[in-house]
Amino acid sequence: MNGRHIAVAITGASGSIYGLRLVQELLAAGCCLSVLVSRAGFAVLKEEHHLDWSGEADLVNVRLRRHFNVEAEQLRYYADSDFHSPLASGSSTASAMVVVPASMGTVARIAAGVSGNLLERAADVMLKEKRPLLMVPRETPLSAIHLENMLKLARLGVSIIPAMPGFYGKPQTVDDLVNFVVGKVLDALAVEHALYQRWGEN
Questions:
Q1: DSSP code per residue over 97-150
Q2: Are the beta carbons of 93 and 122 closer than 8 angstroms?
Q3: Which end of the chain, C or N, has fewer beta carbons within 10 A?
Q4: Cβ contacts of residue 64 below 8 Å, gap of 6+?
Protein backbone atom coordinates (compact mmCIF):
# COMPACT_ATOMS: atom_id res chain seq x y z
CA MET A 1 0.00 0.00 0.00
CA ASN A 2 1.19 3.54 -0.73
CA GLY A 3 0.07 4.77 2.68
CA ARG A 4 -2.11 7.62 1.45
CA HIS A 5 -5.32 8.03 3.42
CA ILE A 6 -8.18 9.38 1.33
CA ALA A 7 -11.79 9.98 2.32
CA VAL A 8 -14.49 9.22 -0.26
CA ALA A 9 -18.01 10.49 0.38
CA ILE A 10 -21.04 9.33 -1.62
CA THR A 11 -24.10 11.57 -1.40
CA GLY A 12 -27.63 11.31 -2.74
CA ALA A 13 -27.00 12.66 -6.24
CA SER A 14 -27.50 10.26 -9.12
CA GLY A 15 -24.23 8.83 -10.38
CA SER A 16 -23.11 6.67 -7.47
CA ILE A 17 -21.17 4.62 -10.03
CA TYR A 18 -18.53 7.37 -9.95
CA GLY A 19 -18.03 6.88 -6.23
CA LEU A 20 -17.90 3.10 -6.53
CA ARG A 21 -15.39 3.19 -9.39
CA LEU A 22 -13.23 5.72 -7.55
CA VAL A 23 -13.12 3.54 -4.44
CA GLN A 24 -12.15 0.56 -6.62
CA GLU A 25 -9.33 2.44 -8.32
CA LEU A 26 -7.95 4.01 -5.14
CA LEU A 27 -7.84 0.61 -3.45
CA ALA A 28 -6.06 -0.84 -6.48
CA ALA A 29 -3.53 1.99 -6.18
CA GLY A 30 -2.82 0.98 -2.58
CA CYS A 31 -4.59 3.82 -0.80
CA CYS A 32 -6.27 3.43 2.58
CA LEU A 33 -9.83 4.70 2.45
CA SER A 34 -12.36 6.15 4.84
CA VAL A 35 -15.80 5.91 3.25
CA LEU A 36 -18.79 8.08 4.07
CA VAL A 37 -22.29 7.56 2.66
CA SER A 38 -25.18 9.92 3.34
CA ARG A 39 -28.66 8.58 4.02
CA ALA A 40 -29.73 9.62 0.54
CA GLY A 41 -26.51 8.10 -0.80
CA PHE A 42 -27.55 4.69 0.53
CA ALA A 43 -30.92 5.10 -1.19
CA VAL A 44 -29.27 5.91 -4.53
CA LEU A 45 -26.88 2.94 -4.24
CA LYS A 46 -29.89 0.69 -3.76
CA GLU A 47 -31.84 2.27 -6.61
CA GLU A 48 -29.01 2.41 -9.15
CA HIS A 49 -26.99 -0.69 -8.22
CA HIS A 50 -29.27 -2.87 -6.05
CA LEU A 51 -26.73 -2.50 -3.23
CA ASP A 52 -28.56 -2.47 0.09
CA TRP A 53 -25.74 -1.31 2.34
CA SER A 54 -27.63 0.70 4.96
CA GLY A 55 -27.50 -0.36 8.60
CA GLU A 56 -25.22 -0.19 11.62
CA ALA A 57 -21.61 0.80 10.93
CA ASP A 58 -20.18 -2.66 11.66
CA LEU A 59 -22.54 -4.26 9.16
CA VAL A 60 -21.85 -1.61 6.51
CA ASN A 61 -18.12 -2.21 6.95
CA VAL A 62 -18.60 -5.94 6.37
CA ARG A 63 -20.64 -5.30 3.22
CA LEU A 64 -18.21 -2.76 1.79
CA ARG A 65 -15.12 -4.88 2.44
CA ARG A 66 -16.81 -7.92 0.96
CA HIS A 67 -17.91 -5.96 -2.13
CA PHE A 68 -14.42 -4.58 -2.78
CA ASN A 69 -12.64 -7.70 -1.50
CA VAL A 70 -10.32 -5.86 0.90
CA GLU A 71 -9.20 -6.13 4.51
CA ALA A 72 -10.16 -3.88 7.40
CA GLU A 73 -6.92 -1.89 7.29
CA GLN A 74 -7.62 -0.84 3.70
CA LEU A 75 -11.17 0.45 4.05
CA ARG A 76 -13.32 1.75 6.89
CA TYR A 77 -16.81 3.18 6.79
CA TYR A 78 -17.91 5.80 9.32
CA ALA A 79 -21.55 6.60 10.08
CA ASP A 80 -22.84 10.13 9.54
CA SER A 81 -23.34 10.54 13.28
CA ASP A 82 -19.82 9.39 14.26
CA PHE A 83 -18.16 12.65 15.30
CA HIS A 84 -15.52 10.59 17.15
CA SER A 85 -14.15 9.58 13.75
CA PRO A 86 -10.61 10.77 12.93
CA LEU A 87 -12.15 12.59 9.97
CA ALA A 88 -13.76 15.05 12.39
CA SER A 89 -10.40 16.24 13.70
CA GLY A 90 -7.79 18.29 11.91
CA SER A 91 -5.02 16.46 13.75
CA SER A 92 -5.76 13.06 12.24
CA THR A 93 -7.96 13.51 9.18
CA ALA A 94 -7.35 12.17 5.67
CA SER A 95 -4.75 13.64 3.31
CA ALA A 96 -7.50 14.36 0.76
CA MET A 97 -11.27 14.04 0.43
CA VAL A 98 -13.52 13.49 -2.57
CA VAL A 99 -17.29 14.00 -2.53
CA VAL A 100 -18.51 11.90 -5.44
CA PRO A 101 -21.18 12.36 -6.55
CA ALA A 102 -21.86 15.64 -4.75
CA SER A 103 -25.50 16.63 -4.37
CA MET A 104 -26.30 20.33 -4.54
CA GLY A 105 -27.65 20.18 -0.98
CA THR A 106 -24.30 18.86 0.24
CA VAL A 107 -22.44 21.48 -1.78
CA ALA A 108 -24.60 24.22 -0.28
CA ARG A 109 -24.12 23.09 3.31
CA ILE A 110 -20.35 22.75 2.92
CA ALA A 111 -20.17 26.17 1.27
CA ALA A 112 -22.11 27.62 4.22
CA GLY A 113 -19.84 25.96 6.79
CA VAL A 114 -22.64 23.79 8.14
CA SER A 115 -21.47 20.64 9.93
CA GLY A 116 -24.68 18.78 10.63
CA ASN A 117 -23.14 15.36 10.05
CA LEU A 118 -19.72 13.73 9.75
CA LEU A 119 -19.55 14.15 5.98
CA GLU A 120 -20.03 17.91 6.24
CA ARG A 121 -17.71 18.15 9.23
CA ALA A 122 -15.00 16.20 7.39
CA ALA A 123 -15.25 18.58 4.44
CA ASP A 124 -15.09 21.55 6.81
CA VAL A 125 -11.93 20.09 8.34
CA MET A 126 -10.33 19.77 4.91
CA LEU A 127 -11.06 23.45 4.25
CA LYS A 128 -9.71 24.71 7.55
CA GLU A 129 -6.60 22.52 7.32
CA LYS A 130 -6.12 23.54 3.67
CA ARG A 131 -6.02 19.97 2.46
CA PRO A 132 -7.28 18.85 -0.96
CA LEU A 133 -11.08 18.71 -1.21
CA LEU A 134 -12.59 17.58 -4.52
CA MET A 135 -16.24 17.63 -5.49
CA VAL A 136 -17.91 15.88 -8.42
CA PRO A 137 -21.30 17.57 -8.94
CA ARG A 138 -23.75 15.74 -11.15
CA GLU A 139 -26.71 18.13 -11.21
CA THR A 140 -28.13 19.55 -14.42
CA PRO A 141 -29.23 22.15 -15.19
CA LEU A 142 -27.45 24.33 -12.63
CA SER A 143 -29.22 27.24 -10.99
CA ALA A 144 -27.50 30.49 -10.06
CA ILE A 145 -27.50 29.30 -6.43
CA HIS A 146 -25.68 26.08 -7.39
CA LEU A 147 -23.11 28.03 -9.40
CA GLU A 148 -22.56 30.59 -6.64
CA ASN A 149 -21.99 27.85 -4.07
CA MET A 150 -19.46 26.09 -6.28
CA LEU A 151 -17.73 29.38 -7.09
CA LYS A 152 -17.42 30.11 -3.38
CA LEU A 153 -15.86 26.69 -2.79
CA ALA A 154 -13.56 27.01 -5.81
CA ARG A 155 -12.28 30.32 -4.42
CA LEU A 156 -11.51 28.49 -1.17
CA GLY A 157 -9.36 26.02 -3.08
CA VAL A 158 -11.86 23.22 -3.68
CA SER A 159 -11.41 21.36 -6.98
CA ILE A 160 -14.75 21.20 -8.78
CA ILE A 161 -14.73 18.28 -11.23
CA PRO A 162 -18.16 18.00 -12.85
CA ALA A 163 -19.24 14.65 -14.24
CA MET A 164 -18.67 15.85 -17.81
CA PRO A 165 -16.85 13.18 -19.86
CA GLY A 166 -14.73 14.03 -22.87
CA PHE A 167 -15.38 12.44 -26.25
CA TYR A 168 -12.03 12.85 -28.00
CA GLY A 169 -11.12 9.30 -26.92
CA LYS A 170 -14.16 7.98 -28.80
CA PRO A 171 -15.87 6.24 -25.85
CA GLN A 172 -17.79 3.12 -26.80
CA THR A 173 -19.51 2.20 -23.53
CA VAL A 174 -20.98 3.76 -20.39
CA ASP A 175 -17.93 2.39 -18.57
CA ASP A 176 -15.70 4.48 -20.86
CA LEU A 177 -17.63 7.61 -19.88
CA VAL A 178 -17.47 6.77 -16.18
CA ASN A 179 -13.76 6.00 -16.41
CA PHE A 180 -13.02 9.37 -17.99
CA VAL A 181 -14.60 11.27 -15.09
CA VAL A 182 -13.00 9.05 -12.45
CA GLY A 183 -9.68 9.36 -14.26
CA LYS A 184 -9.91 13.15 -13.97
CA VAL A 185 -10.44 12.79 -10.22
CA LEU A 186 -7.41 10.51 -9.97
CA ASP A 187 -5.38 13.05 -11.97
CA ALA A 188 -6.31 15.73 -9.43
CA LEU A 189 -5.21 13.38 -6.63
CA ALA A 190 -1.94 12.59 -8.44
CA VAL A 191 -2.81 8.88 -8.54
CA GLU A 192 -1.54 7.05 -11.61
CA HIS A 193 -4.10 5.22 -13.75
CA ALA A 194 -4.92 4.11 -17.28
CA LEU A 195 -8.65 4.74 -17.26
CA TYR A 196 -8.87 6.94 -20.33
CA GLN A 197 -6.91 7.80 -23.44
CA ARG A 198 -5.14 11.12 -23.09
CA TRP A 199 -5.10 13.66 -25.90
CA GLY A 200 -2.36 12.78 -28.38
CA GLU A 201 -2.01 9.16 -27.25
CA ASN A 202 -2.40 6.39 -29.81
A1: EEEEEE-HHHHHHHHTT--SSHHHHHHHHHHHTT--EEEEE--SSPPHHHHHHH
A2: yes
A3: C
A4: 35, 53, 75, 77
Q: Enter the CATH code of domain 5-188.
A: 3.40.50.1950
Binding residues: 12-14, 38, 103-106, 138, 168, 184
- Per the annotation, binding residues for dimethylallyl phosphate are 168, 184
Burial label, 142 (beta-carbon count in 10 A; 0-12, 13-18, 19+): middle
**Per-residue pLDDT tens digits for 2-35:** 679 999 999 999 999 999 999 999 999 999 999 9
Instruction: Tell me the C-alpha distance between 128 and 136, whole Å.
Output: 20
pLDDT band, residue 1 (cuts 50/70/90): low
Question: So where are the chain's domains?
Answer: 5-188
CA atoms within 13 A on the CB side of 13: 23
| Residue pLDDT, tens place only, 109-119 | 999 999 999 99
* Interhelix angle 57-68/16-28, nearest 10 degrees: 70
Measured CA angle at 143 (ends 139, 148), to 5 deg? 100
